[in-house]
Amino acid sequence: MKISARNLFRGRVTCLIRGAVNSEVTLDVAGTALVAVVTNEAVEALGLAEGGETLALIKASSVLVGVGEGTRLSARNQLVGTVSRVVEGAVNGEVVIDLDQGSEVVAVLTNASIRRLGLVVGTRASAIIKASSVLLAVE
């Protein structure tokens, strides 16, 4: 499978809560919870069930980055790590965060945001991802 999303995580479904239209799917990704909200039709089409393996895909442009601690957010996924690479382009830049659990996440931010947040190699940062921005797939 070839994909354009920069972030791909393998996980096991630990919790599946069905609503009237959507389901909340919680994955264990290397000991860290990652939550996705998908339609019930998607749950059925993918054959998702607790204990099953799945892939979580997240576009780099859907990843927000925060620095500092103590901010309460509505986004369900806040993955903590250390910035390992910053590449600025003409308008946007790429920020790679090595997550504490051992994987990495890539975010695309404006250069202005990179500078305003002081994102340099070694900065502690959080990758913030809304559950609705997490796509699920099975192999």
Describe the structure.
With 139 residues, the chain is mainly β. It is 10% helix and 53% strand. The protein has a 5-stranded antiparallel beta sheet. Strand 2 (22-29) and strand 3 (32-39) form a beta hairpin. It is elongated and about 45 Å long.
Write the topology of this structure:
Blueprint: E1 7-18, E2 22-29, E3 32-39, H1 40-46, E4 53-58, E5 64-66, E6 77-88, E7 92-99, E8 104-110, H2 111-117, E9 124-129, E10 135-137
Antiparallel strand pairs: 1-2, 1-4, 2-3, 4-10, 5-9, 6-7, 6-9, 7-8
Spatial sequence of strands, sheet with the most strands: 3-2-1-4-10
- Amount of helix: 10-25%
**Structure class:** mainly beta
Instruction: Work out the strand percent.
Output: over 45%
User: Gap between N and C termini, in Å?
Assistant: 8 Å
Strands, count: 10
Radius of gyration: 15 Å
Uncertain segments of ≥5 residues (pLDDT<50)? none
pLDDT averaged over residues: 95
| H/E topology pattern | EEEHEEEEEHEE
Give the number of helices.
2
State the shape.
Answer: elongated
Biggest beta sheet summary: 5 strands, antiparallel
Brief summary of the model shown:
By secondary structure, the protein is mainly β. The protein contains two helices and ten strands. The longest helix is centred in the N-terminal third of the chain and has 7 residues, at 40-46.
Keywords:
139 residues; mainly beta; 10 strands; five-stranded antiparallel sheet
